[in-house]
Amino acid sequence: MWFRLVLTLLGTWLGHAAAQAQGCAVAPVAVLAVRDTAGVLTVTARLGGRDVAMVLDTGSEGGLVTPEAAHTLPVDAATAAPPVALQMYGANGGQRIARMVSVPDLQLGGLHVALAAVAVSRLPFQPMLRPPIAGLIGADLLSHFDLELDVAGGTARLYAPGCADPPRPPGWHGARAVGLLRVGDRLVGQAVLDGHAVSALVDTGARGRVVGLATALALGIDEAELGADSGGTASGLGAQPGFYRWHRFRSFSFAGHGERDVTLTVSRLDDVADMLLGADWFAAHTVWISWARATMWVR
């Protein structure tokens, strides 16, 4: 989703950033509990004075809140900005008109964030969780930090970018460093699929890895073969539902971690990359993502 939010990072992060500038100590500004529910990665937060879950979505250019969560915000928040047309990318793109609200205080652990204009929209998938899912945190916010994500360990940590700019995060010796291309606030890396290099959007908000239909066809998989695969239709943030197929590829590799005979989703993609590197991959790997250095470390 390509829209930018004007945001202000308050007290806690600014204090940590100042401390880092003086001593270059690497300490998280926020430590969040991560939950993996059927491929939906959420972190704990507080919004409108209530405990909530927020989808962690590095593949979204901006964040959003659900209509239910918007009702918990201050009354004057609803008049923060006029409605806008949001361009949706992904498995089924399109445009939709969304009203905007301001979020005066989103709490992520000890970090307090004020968002000047956030879209209000329903999510295409919303597991019944307690606390409930109130929206998603996108790359516009995450890009101000380094993100350490350990899904198996149930933890996400946000760090202010290191002032010393070390070659790798402290304690990550031996980890594989992967250079990324920054497109807006999103990050794209290179994967290898059936022996061919393909671009992969770093997308923790996608429930699984998704290969674009055009990419699959370019790899020599014909439509008749895909038609014989299992699949169906699914809704995304875009206006129209889209089809998908589960196809078995011979091999897949990213950051030197390879798999054989791997089943991935194939769907039409209207996005900046050939495929989405989704939550199923991140559930199996601990990563440190730095937007400032356009690098991801994997172990």
Describe it for me?
There is one protein chain. The protein is mainly beta and 299 residues long. The protein has two domains: 7-170, Acid Proteases (Cathepsin D, subunit A, domain 1, Beta Barrel); 181-282, Cathepsin D, subunit A, domain 1 (Beta Barrel). Helices cover 12% and strands 47% of the residues. The chain is built from six helices and 22 strands. It has helices spanning 11-23, 67-70, 139-142, 213-218, 223-227, 279-282; strands spanning 7-9, 30-37, 40-47, 50-56, 64-65, 81-88, 94-108, 111-120, 133-137, 146-150, 155-159, 176-179, 181-183, 186-193, 196-202, 210-212, 231-234, 242-254, 257-267, 275-277, 287-290, 295-298. The strands form two sheets. Strands 3-4-9-5-8-7 form a six-stranded mixed beta barrel. The chain has a six-stranded mixed β-barrel with strand order 14-15-20-16-19-18. β10 (146-150) and β11 (155-159) form a beta hairpin. The longest helix is centred in the N-terminal third of the chain and has 13 residues, at 11-23. It is globular. The chain starts with 6 loop residues before the first strand and ends with a strand. The model is unreliable at 1-24 (pLDDT under 50). Residues 1-21 form the signal peptide. One of its GO terms (biological process) is proteolysis.
For this entry, give a set of tags.
6 helices; single chain; Cathepsin D, subunit A, domain 1; mainly beta; 12% helix; 299 residues; 2 domains; six-stranded mixed barrel; disordered N terminus; six-stranded mixed beta barrel; globular
